[in-house]
């Protein structure tokens, strides 16, 4: 019975890639290129102030979403690298043990 777990390193790479793409896709969305023209509203108009605050709030949320996705992507990618290094270290130890045992075929 195998009580351990396995990590699909390719899946981690794909996940990191997809998370990095979220930032670009969201930032490139047309909604961020064409904001409402508040200059058409008079300066003391409360609607102008509300729309300006709303747009700034939406942009801040968008930036947080993109930044957080990029941060998680970096963490996932780093985890994949650490898993790969751990696997290489364990494999090297097992090969050394197998060599020391005269090639008895230590199971990996």
Helix-strand layout with pairing:
Elements: H1 9-27, H2 30-33, H3 46-100
Biggest β-sheet strands, sense, barrel: none
Ranges where pLDDT stays below 50 over 5 or more residues in a row are none
* Dominant shape: rod-shaped
Strand content: under 5%
The number of helical elements comes to 3
Structural class: mainly alpha
Radius of gyration: 26 Å
SSE run:
HHH
The total strand number stands at 0
Structural overview:
The structure is a single chain. The chain is an all-alpha fold and 108 residues long. It has three helices and no strands. The chain has helices at residues 9-27, 30-33, 46-100. The mean pLDDT is 87.
What distinguishing features does this structure have?
108 residues, mainly alpha, 3 helices, 0% strand
Give a quick rundown of the structure.
It is built from three helices and no strands. The protein is mostly helical and 108 residues long.
